[in-house]
Amino acid sequence: MLPTAVHRPAPPGIRRRALLVTLFVVYLALLTWLVMWKLHDPFIGRADMRSIKLVPFLPGDGFGASDPLEILGNVAVFVPFGVYLRLLRPDWRVARIALLAGALSLAFEVAQYVTAVGSSDVTDVIANTAGAILGFVVLAGMRRHGRGGAMLTASLAAATVIALVAAVAVVAGRPSLPAPGDGGAGHIVD
């Protein structure tokens, strides 16, 4: 008689890591949609939509000064990047997180320029990197004082799920447009 396989649940540490990796991937997908298309349907722009602002924060070359609320928004959306990486790779130093966040942000800015979907701005790279560093440092400080861990993972999971539900609501709440040749009956735009 052949022995039967016994299903043993994965240890809690492995389940927690798998959950974090899954949530991080969802966060990165939402972040890409937010940064590239501002939660609109993905599209490729026109050449006249391309612009590059190389002087951070200040007005110049036909650009105004950077909007403080936009800067804060850029910092805020990258805080989870630093938190997730700190949870997934606690052995990494802040310099590595800064390098990865800066590289991801620069990739977003280059992609925005190539696809002509937004203004490529050095301020965004700086603010996004600062947000990731902030997330990493805050979590490191919490851990140093005995906080974080399971409660933070649960909070991060809840925030990611709320963001995902909000994104679905944005898509579902879009106005329906008449399909070509259907006489005005609406459908959700893909």
From TrEMBL:
Provide this UniProt record's keywords sorted from A to Z. Membrane, Transmembrane, Transmembrane helix
Domain VanZ-like, which positions? 24-139
Q: Where are the transmembrane segments?
A: 18-36, 71-87, 94-113, 125-142, 149-172
Which Pfam families did the record assign? VanZ
Q: Is the keyword Transmembrane in the record?
A: yes
Keyword Glycoprotein (UniProt): no
What is the protein name stated in its UniProt record? VanZ family protein
Q: Which organism is it from?
A: Protaetiibacter mangrovi
